[in-house]
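From the thread on structure requests for the teaching lab: each student submitted one protein with a one-line request. Submission from student K.M.:

"Model Anoctamin-5 from Culex pipiens, tokens only."
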Amino acid sequence: MCKLCEQLHKNCGGTWNRFQDGKRVVDFVLAFNGHLQNDEEADRKRKIFQENLIREGLEIEPETTQRIHFIKIHVPPEVVSRYCEHMKIMMPIVKLKDQENIITEEFSIGGSLVRFFRRPMFRFVIIDRDKFRKREYRLLHEYSREKCYLFDADAPDFFTPSIRIAVAHFILERARFGLEDEKYDIGLRKLLNDQVYLDAYPLHDGSP
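Reply posted by the TA:
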């Protein structure tokens, strides 16, 4: 994130984490210089690009400051679902009955240390198990909307922030900003290189 964008976000006290409706989470942000006048070419590219983002199902909302203009992007659940399938993302399946009995215990540093220090010569060593919490082991399967019964897709945390960011980035890098015959006018990276946008970044940290 550029320093100016970062400062503007700090001044807003985190109010940009959601759309104006207070419900939809902001997954990605585009920023451009609103002071540049008569840059019709950049305006045209942004307009086409953002229209194509909407066509792909992304929801956008402008946020204007005196100098920097922002485009907030939200990835709706149905878009995440469609692109998870297209990107062949591995997702956790619903827990099976007696799952723990059919899965080999996952190797962990904490478990290894506990076993190592159980030896008689290390009886004075105390392992803080809270520092090495056992991670829950989940079975994964390539996401498929046709096999929705395999997944707990209705759970509010099923599509994590990191997955929504990945989907947003995937769409942004493939959206066109020119005419069909302008084959190189595609993708966010080129728009950033050409200074059509100043910056682009996920608003949350992408942690699960």
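TA comment: The first strand starts at residue 28 and ends at 33. The helical segments are 3-11, 40-55, 77-86, 99-102, 109-116, 161-172, 188-193.
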